[in-house]
Design a protein that fits this description.
Elements: E1 3-6, E2 23-27, H1 33-47, E3 51-55, H2 69-78, E4 80-83, H3 92-98, E5 100-108, E6 122-128, H4 132-135, E7 138-142, E8 145-148, H5 154-170, E9 175-180, H6 188-200, E10 207-212, H7 213-222, E11 229-232, H8 234-248, E12 255-260, E13 264-268, H9 285-297, H10 301-316, E14 319-320, H11 322-328, E15 332-333, H12 336-345, E16 382-392, H13 398-406, E17 413-420, E18 423-426, E19 440-447, H14 457-472, E20 476-486, E21 489-490
Parallel strand pairs: 2-3, 2-4, 4-13, 6-11, 9-10, 9-11, 14-15
Antiparallel strand pairs: 1-3, 5-6, 5-12, 7-8, 12-13, 16-19, 16-20, 17-18, 17-19, 20-21
């Protein structure tokens, strides 16, 4: 690994000694990564950025090979990684090693210099990246039914919401919109929305509102300039990030910030473009803008704004890398090195037609948890109400299946209903029209009306006995879900 230290210019008059330069790990990446890294480092040095750069080597991002111990130790020591493009992006191995739990992406127009379908668009999408459906395990419960677990936790939601509100306040953003499908999933998405509302109460300077994912995606595609900052669980946030990037255009200028418990990664979203490597034609703008966001997070906001304003002024003068030349209608093409020099020559200048740079402020203090927003245990506490048994059965006669299941009633548990998919099929009075029948049946056993089960070892024994009786009856169980009430209110979906 090679260490590079970028120093501020010598002061004109005596001033207190500057604080030590913060450590930054640099992974140059593949393809055009090394040459755009050189260009970016030259701009940072000329602008007076205070960073002590230690170079590290990562894998190709696709193979899933573990991050090398030496590289991981250097990244962990720095807490910040400026990363060039790799074929597989950050890669699963790096995500796991650094505990990357949140992604921040900014999508904006660069009008009037670069054509934009939505002038004035400047949207930030913040999403959780460890939980929800993409993070949940999948399995085939029967040959014709696949299953995935949607997991939302209070600690994960708290961490994300506090980060989002803190980012909005520090970066001068006025509105934060929570995006869920809480009307259809009131328990999982409802928990995320509840934590959002609780966190909003501590941040009155930021306007907090909420929107359903279908409405948000439609409006983001049609009128993105109406949004400021969007916050969402993993799956919805992934969709919104892609929609925003597509609407804004110019993906070679887009950046991504991945926040982790070990380190935070700043990177462009474009790939390594191996066919352009070594030809001095690559556009360093994506990595340069990512470096500006990194500087803002390191507390060097003025340096970051100085660089970004100079970059915008360079574009205004028609000095463009090859990949922007055809879109902007300007004439002068600059190679990688010449473009970096043009930005350096304009340090201290501000754009005259494009918007001034906005600060990017992010708390990089490593945290795994925050003081909990959890409410006290409700009066009456948590009580076991029953159990859902999902079984594999090849028959189609709901009455016959129910007749076998009712013989299992044991220890205060009784069969309440049977469903195939989302359709109740037994008892007959509650049955709905079933168009499709699969080999998976959900059978709910609830406590008898004359007795409540309480959370105790005896409750566990009753459920174990029920499972044993099912096995003895030749019933194949593929999933077990215990059901609880909280303060008398069910913590599970109705039939």
């Amino acid at each position: 690994m090679r260490d590079t230290v970028l120093h501020l210019p010598n002061p004109v008059r005596a001033e207190p000694a500057p604080a030590p330069s913060p450590a930054v790990a640099l992974a140059r990446g593949a393809g055009i990564g090394p040459e755009i890294s050189d260009a970016v480092l030259s701009v940072l040095e000329a602008a007076g950025a205070r960073v002590a750069v230690a170079e590290v080597t990562l894998g190709d991002g696709e193979s899933g090979e573990p991050v090398g111990d030496a590289a991981l130790a250097e990244i962990s020591r720095a807490g910040v990684l400026l990363k060039g493009p790799l074929p597989g992006g950050t890669g699963a191995a790096l995500r796991k090693a650094l505990g990357l739990h949140c992604t921040i992406r900014r999508a904006r127009s660069f009008d009037p210099v670069l054509p934009a379908a939505h002038p004035g668009m400047d949207v930030v999408v913040i999403r959780e990246t460890e939980e929800d459906l993409p993070g949940g395990p999948e399995n085939l419960q029967t040959a014709d039914v696949a299953h995935c677990i949607k997991r939302i936790t209070r600690p994960g939601s708290e961490r994300l919401c506090r980060l989002a509100f803190g980012f909005a306040e520090a970066s001068g953003r006025k509105r934060l919109t929570c995006v869920t499908k809480a009307n259809a999933m009131p328990i999982t998405d409802g928990l995320f929305r509840t934590v959002f509302d609780e966190t909003a109460a501590d941040h009155p300077a930021v306007t907090a509102d909420a929107m359903l994912i279908d409405q948000a995606a439609a409006r983001l595609a049609a009128r993105p300039e109406r949004f400021d900052t969007l916050l969402a669980p993993n799956l919805y946030g992934d969709i919104l990030s892609d929609v925003a990037a597509a609407v804004a255009g110019h993906p070679q200028l887009a950046t991504s910030v991945r926040v982790g418990t070990v380190a935070t990664v700043f990177e462009p979203i474009h790939g390594p473009a191996a066919r352009l490597a070594g030809r001095n034609v690559a556009n360093p703008s994506g990595l340069l803008l990512a470096a500006c966001e990194m500087l803002g997070a390191l507390g060097q906001t003025q340096v970051a704004l100085r660089i970004e304003n100079a970059w915008a002024r360079t574009l205004e003068e028609g000095l463009l890398p090859s990949d922007l030349l055809g879109t902007a209608g300007h004439r002068r093409r600059l190679g990688t090195i010449a473009f970096a020099r043009a930005v350096i020559e304009r340090l201290g200048e501000q754009p005259r037609r494009m918007s001034l740079a906005r600060p990017f402020a992010l708390d990089l203090t490593p945290r795994t948890a925050f003081p909990s927003l959890a409410k006290p245990e409700p009066q009456g506490g948590r009580r076991l109400a029953g159990v859902d048994l999902t079984i594999a059965w090849s028959g189609e006669d709901a009455e016959g299946l129910a007749a076998r299941l009712t013989t299992l009633t044991w220890g205060g548990l009784r069969l309440d209903h049977v469903a195939n998919g989302e359709h109740p099929v037994w008892p007959p009075a509650a049955a709905s029209a079933v168009g499709l029948v699969t080999g998976q049946w959900r059978c709910r056993f609830l406590t008898s009306t004359d007795r409540r089960l309480h959370e105790s070892s005896d409750d566990t024994t009753r459920i174990a006995d029920l499972l044993g009786r099912a096995a003895a009856a030749g019933i194949e169980i593929v999933k077990i879900e215990t059901l609880y009430t909280y303060g008398g209110e069910p913590g599970y979906s109705p039939a």
